[in-house]
């Protein structure tokens, strides 16, 4: 093997190593099943992303057929995978009683604003926490523990609420809810949404 050929071969190998990431280094999807869980889910009021207007969950859910509360960290690759799915489902079913409220966790609000872009999110976004130091103390962390979610950060974490089954007043909204401890499986989520909205 000539030195010229060996040098060329080495250069090609180097180029491939730069432009092709190994599969193990790529972020994998974290799909999770939709499961009904028994746990105490409490009402909350968090500031809206952007203008800090208080948003109360019970009031937000009133009059709707189904609400998805999705806890997310804007830096999380799995949330980045799920976000287009959430937007698609919201846009498809919002006129039929489905709504979404997303809860920013573990990152500055500026990061979420940048994530959603200049037009903002198509659905309502609120803020619970803005730093990683809240990972073990947020209400999100508490619900994850109650439902057996062992992930380090738990983003995304999805809770489907049926407003007709929520309590009319008080601290506790419900004692059970449908939960996805990871990314939504789109076909399963859509089937669930359609059933709860009474669609064929």
Description:
The protein has 200 residues and is α/β, with parallel strands linked by helices. The chain has one domain: Glutaredoxin (3-Layer(aba) Sandwich), CATH 3.40.30. Helices cover 33% and strands 24% of the residues. The chain is built from 6 helices and 8 strands; from the N terminus they run αβββαβαβαβαββα. A 6-stranded mixed sheet has the order 1-8-7-4-5-6, sandwiched between helices. Strands 2-3 form a two-stranded antiparallel ribbon. Strand 5 (98-104), helix 4 and strand 6 form a beta-alpha-beta unit. The protein starts with a helix and ends with a helix. Mean pLDDT is 90; it is low at 4-25.
Annotate the secondary structure layout.
Elements: H1 3-19, E1 34-42, E2 45-47, E3 54-56, H2 57-61, E4 66-72, H3 77-93, E5 98-104, H4 109-116, E6 124-127, H5 139-146, E7 157-161, E8 172-180, H6 186-196
Parallel strand pairs: 4-5, 5-6
Antiparallel strand pairs: 1-8, 2-3, 4-7, 7-8
Question: Which properties best describe this structure?
Answer:
two-stranded antiparallel ribbon; 200 residues; single chain; 8 strands; 6-stranded mixed β-sheet; alpha/beta; Glutaredoxin; 6 helices
